[in-house]
Design brief:
CATH topology: putative ntp pyrophosphohydrolase like fold
Mean pLDDT: 88
Helix content: 55-70%
Structural class: mainly alpha
Order of helices and strands: HHHHEHEE
Number of helices: 5
Low-confidence stretches: none
Distance between the termini: 29 Å
Radius of gyration: 19 Å
Largest sheet: 3 strands, antiparallel
Strand order of the largest sheet: 1-3-2
Number of domains: 1
Oligomer: single chain
Number of strands: 3
Length: about 160
């Protein structure tokens, strides 16, 4: 097993553990956890949106690093709860997160992609190999490379 595989396993265990903690909280406090995956009722979605908006506001209003960090962690806690409220398991959260990460990393541009396409933005050389680029628009948003592939999360419907 190489270092990359070990890191991915540790990351999956970390995500599983954190999601499991939120699942424990929700069970303990009598919150509904569906026995199978389901799109939550609109009232649950509304509640969960209110919760995350409250935490985003706390981050916006933070006046210290501790307050900011607290808001970050609370947002993570609430986000894991979004998945639990839909009956999505900790293992599925970890698998989905890994797939979204893979997709996001596919936004890197190769030398050939940068040279083949006129890009009205700046390209910044990254990675140890020096052969990949991050391409951003004028506002700093990362642009998807021609070889970008979207996250395949269809496994969640099975």
């Amino acid at each position: 097993m190489n270092d990359t595989d070990k890191h991915e396993i540790m990351q999956m265990e970390y995500l599983n553990d954190n999601c499991s903690k939120v699942q424990e909280f929700m069970k303990t406090f009598g919150q509904t956890i569906p026995p199978q995956k389901i799109l939550p009722f609109q009232s649950i979605i509304d509640l969960r949106c209110d919760l995350i908006n409250e935490e985003v506001t706390e981050m916006y209003e933070a006046e210290s690093l501790v307050e900011y960090f607290d808001a970050v962690l609370d947002q993570l806690y609430v986000a894991y709860g979004h998945a639990v409220a839909a009956g999505i398991s900790p293992a599925e959260v970890a698998r989905g997160f890994a797939e979204v990460h893979r997709s996001n990393m596919s936004k890197l541009w190769t030398d050939a992609e940068v040279n083949e396409r006129p890009v009205m933005s700046k390209a910044v050389r990254v990675a140890e190999s020096g052969r990949c680029f991050i391409v951003t628009n004028q506002s700093g948003k990362v642009l998807k490379s021609p070889s970008y592939s979207p996250a395949d999360l269809t496994f969640i419907e099975k």
